[in-house]
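Please, structure for the following, as tokens.
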Amino acid sequence: MFSGFSHSVMGASHEKTNLVCQDSSAFKIGDHYAIAVVADGHGSKKHFRSHLGSKFAVEATIEAIDRFYEEREALEASLPVNHKLIIRNIEKQIISNWNVKVDKHLSENPVTDKEKEKFTEEEFEAILPESYYGTTLVAAVSGDNYTFGLQIGDGSLVALFEDGKAVMPMEYNESAPANVTASLCNSNAASLFSSFYAPNKKLIALYGSTDGLYTSFGSEHDFLDYHTIITSQLVNIETFKTVIKNNLEKRSHFGTEDDISLACIYNEKLLTDRMDLIRKRVDENKKAAADRKAAALSKQV
């Protein structure tokens, strides 16, 4: 019933400075559920292994969610009443899984002299080891008639439910107090997550993306319209994969020239059943965009 797609591309700014892509992404189709995950390693100096941190975050998330779905029927029976507690427990398990992976990697791969050479001795001693791997995370899960998601740091989730309208279940923001970078590496990471739960809603498609995609658009309207357009192309998945990869490459050279990751999961049958509606939404969005442009031009006159 479910299918999916994920891809990460390097941003133009990283190409110019010979940095590796710090994003990671994945999807997984389980038994009556599907997962989409993206993570964005921090680009600042002290997070010099963040490309690995984002990879570990994606792996840790899928492992945590799969573990909760080992008793799927019991989980789904509890979600309507206890979704906040269940999602919090998933978040805590993700953090635990991630720290285990980080600790294992660091023990097997001690910091090298080359990695230290950018710091003074005092600067390096002040960095907590888990910060080397700092990363954001955006993840979402869909079952037969519900969806939930969680997020730490920036990035976006966009959902199209059976009405065919693209919506952001959580606002685009960095879910942390002012002047604090929300990250899995923070000692208080469990308190920095935001989440959503949408019961009794059948999902057509769900997308998670790192902030490089959002910032490549001029407005939230354009960002949401983009997701409606690409949903209309999902029926031809092999063609879609080629088109979307090329598009993400182009977009990684716009906006902040950042890395971009996109992961999606979708209900194949509902997508087919609602395709006429989705195409109608695409046409409506084009007209609304033209109206907004005309209104903006009239204000300039």
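The mean pLDDT is 92. The chain has one domain: 2-300.
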